[in-house]
Specification:
The protein is of the alpha/beta class and 505 residues long. Helices cover 39% and strands 19% of the residues.
Length: 505
């Protein structure tokens, strides 16, 4: 069994500078994201919160690497925790913690006292001098500018935390505190990085993908969205809406002047995304456009495109260099996947319009079949990028007609879907919440889980079984249960059989 590790989590400047009520709200969101991140990667955790820090205990050897992907966190450090009452106690703990690390190496001691700490008879430099003098005995020397080892010391009211390194987090704001938008994602470098940058500013996202290249194009874009969502969208559950645009693209080539093809295609995408955003009640769109990158992204053309729709268009990469975009794609883990996605959003035409005329673009837009656009939006395919891919059958799959008598049935879908219809007696615990709560459920009960199509429930049932709970799931999910209920099988669940209160340290 892996030994639990304690981590110190530092908030970003965007969080620390907020007023008290806002800061509490943002911190609540970060705690949810931390718990979601670790649960999604199979790790249990407990969270302690103080004004300027979070302390997380987790059983995962890679928990630090997971935590540094939570937005709103500036850095993460594995720490040792020691009680203290005098400066000598702090120094003794520091020697025990750091002596082997600094042996034969150049080091520096960096100490801080937490804000609001009662007045102490010593300051941070006194800690640094006292501990540094003891550590110097076995070290190669002190180097305050370029140390090989940094001995970090953070003093709290009754405990001191010691660490020798920091894992950089993405900083920014926690996902969701600034609302939700719809991001146009192609699978390429730019749109994936634009999504990441938008998350960094606290905006939750759903994705829209316009299929211009068939099944292979869609598979590539979905893979990129999955990598993004599973590695970074903690605390949220984005959806990807795939819309078929190939027939309209072919018609566009027939009806629009070639020099306006590229600009008209971008207009078609924005208008279609705007319609979907209206249906989803989202106030803004997000694109990966950068000034001057292609003909449709010149400053005059971007201004023309913005006039076509009422919604705000967010362009986080507007002034970014391509080299910087590609470097960030490597950092966030989408580079290799995006490199495999062919470019279908560029229409070859000589003398493409780089400074379009409003009347010409309006004429091109007038050729679009708005009813067909509405129909394409209605026929869209919806993917859930964070949904686990189940590669094997999970033990405990049950047929709706064979749900054990007295079992506690849990509906993992969103509250609106649950209220619209649910299995008689089923309790509602949304999937993200269930990932955090399942370890605290009553082990004397038998659980039956269901979700939309059976994938989330299978994943969670497997985790629950590994944790020693008796858990089953319904293959094919709510649709199978609805068919069973229509045939009169319903009514065997035990309503209200479990306390689903979240356990939070």
């Amino acid at each position: 069994m892996t030994e639990d590790q304690l981590f110190l989590l530092r908030f970003s400047g965007d969080v620390c500078t907020k007023a008290r009520l806002t800061r509490h709200r943002f911190t609540d969101q970060i705690v949810e994201a931390v718990e979601d991140a670790l649960a999604a990667n199979g790790h249990a955790c407990s969270v302690e919160r103080i004004w300027s820090r979070l302390f997380v205990t987790s059983d995962g050897v890679d928990a630090g690497a997971v935590l540094q992907r939570v937005f709103g966190l500036r850095s993460v450090s594995p720490v040792g925790r020691y009680p203290w009452s005098t400066l000598d106690d702090i120094v003794a703990a520091g020697v025990a913690h750091f002596a082997s690390a600094v042996a034969g190496r150049r080091f520096a001691v960096r100490a801080r006292r937490t804000t609001g700490h009662p007045r102490l008879p010593f300051d941070s430099p006194a800690i640094e001098r006292a501990l540094g003098a003891e550590l110097l005995v076995g070290a190669a020397g002190v180097d305050l500018d370029h140390p090989e080892v940094t001995a970090g010391v953070e003093v709290h009211a009754k405990e001191v935390y010691l660490y020798s390194g920091k894992l950089d987090g993405p900083a920014g704001l926690p996902i969701g505190v600034e609302g939700r938008a719809l991001a146009l994602i192609s699978g390429g470098f730019d749109s994936a990085v634009a999504c990441w940058e938008t998350w960094k500013r606290g905006v939750a996202l759903d994705f829209v993908f316009f299929n211009l290249g068939g099944a292979a194009h869609e598979r590539g874009a979905v893979r990129v969205a999955e990598r993004l969502a599973r590695d970074w969208a903690y605390g949220d559950w984005p959806r990807l809406h795939a819309i078929e645009l190939r027939p309209l693209l072919e018609q566009l080539k027939l009806d629009v002047k070639p020099r306006y093809w590229q600009l008209a295609l971008k207009a078609l995408m924005l208008l279609t995304a705007d319609r979907l955003a209206a249906e989803l009640r989202l106030p803004a769109l997000v694109t990966g456009e950068a000034i001057g990158q292609v003909s449709s992204q010149t400053l005059p053309n971007l201004a023309l495109l913005d006039r076509l729709i009422e919604r705000l268009v967010l362009r986080p990469l507007l002034t970014a260099n391509k080299d910087d975009i590609v470097a960030l794609a490597r950092r966030i883990g989408t580079y290799e996947l995006s490199a495999d996605v062919p470019e279908f959003c560029s229409l070859a035409a000589q003398h493409a319009a780089t400074k379009g005329h409003g009347g010409e673009l309006a004429a091109a837009v007038a050729t679009f079949d708005r009813d067909w656009i509405a129909s394409a939006v209605a026929r869209r395919q919806v993917h859930e990028p964070r949904m686990p891919r189940v590669t094997h059958d999970v033990a405990g799959g049950v047929d709706p007609a064979a749900i054990p008598p007295g079992a506690t049935v849990i509906d993992l879908r969103a509250g609106g879907d649950y209220r619209e219809w649910h299995w008689p007696g089923a309790l509602n615990l949304e999937y993200l919440q269930a990932l955090r709560a399942y370890r605290s459920l009553d082990r004397s009960l038998d659980f039956v889980l269901y979700c939309e199509v059976g994938l989330k429930s299978a994943h969670l049932a497997e985790l629950m079984q590994e944790a020693g709970l008796c858990a089953h799931h319904v293959p094919r999910g709510a649709s199978a249960l609805r068919r069973a209920a229509a045939t009169g099988v319903a009514g065997v669940a035990s309503e209200g059989a479990v306390n689903l209160t979240l356990r939070r340290s």
